[in-house]
Amino acid sequence: MIEGRFGESIVVRRPGQGRIAELVLDRPHAMNAVSMEFGASLAAATAALAGDRSVGVTVITSTAERAFCVGADLKERRSYTESDRARARPVSRAAYAGVLALPMPVIAAVHGYALGGGYELALSCDVIVADPGAVIGLPETAVGVIPGGGGTQLLPRRVGAARAADLIFSGRRVPAVEALELGLVDTLSPAGEVRASALEIARTYAANSPVALRAAKRALRLGHGGDLATGLEIEDAGWYAVAFSADWVEGVEAFNEKRQPKWPGYRETESVTEHR
């Protein structure tokens, strides 16, 4: 399994044994503000994870004490010329696209501030676990821009068009309890235990077939929002991908033998690589 540091801001590590990878946002002095370097490092890390079929589930966490991620690094961007802004945009898009494209289930462990691009990182995940003290928001319109990490498209899919419009137009910050009620996050952890809670969920997911998990995620993502007939065709393709795999054989055998399955997965050797 891929492990190591990507640039100055991102770490990928294994939190114990098994098929779980932890992608760590590691720019604590800036509360993980998304700088050019941060974006490039995140894109590199997600590309490496996407190519590592030994990873069953990924959990995104933060080393910053007060934040998951506060969004764009406005201190860095203050000095940007128009040329700089144009050059930075593809880097930013690649970072968010990298998270969104991860083929395995991805869980965000959110504590403190998750604002702007920080919340968009969480939106790009499949499940969001939040600390009761977390604060959520897309405040971009207050600084003269719009959400550019997928927020205008992902938030309506999560909470509906009208609610998303209100949150984006107002730019207001939403405390965790209300965020749960609105559907901005999926579950609240006990106070101070968001990483542990997210990893526990990841262990539950990772106990299942890695081939099935990826096929299910693909069907969920590609089928959502389209017409039912197309969605069912996508689901059918996913079924075939799993039904003729070694995981299907093992799952049926384990069920009939009343034991825990030992998933063959993709039969790829795990590797440990340092990236600097």
Automatic annotation (TrEMBL):
The keyword Ribosomal protein does not apply. InterPro entries: ClpP/crotonase-like_dom_sf, Enoyl-CoA_hyd/isom_CS, Enoyl-CoA_hydra/iso, Enoyl-CoA_hydra_C. CDD domains: crotonase-like. Gene3D superfamilies: 2-enoyl-CoA Hydratase, Chain A, domain 1, Lyase 2-enoyl-coa Hydratase, Chain A, domain 2. PROSITE patterns: ENOYL_COA_HYDRATASE. Keywords: Lipid metabolism, Lyase. Belongs to the enoyl-CoA hydratase/isomerase family. PANTHER family: (7AS)-7A-METHYL-1,5-DIOXO-2,3,5,6,7,7A-HEXAHYDRO-1H-INDENE-CARBOXYL-COA HYDROLASE, ENOYL-COA HYDRATASE-RELATED. This is Enoyl-CoA hydratase/isomerase family protein. It comes from Streptomyces cremeus.
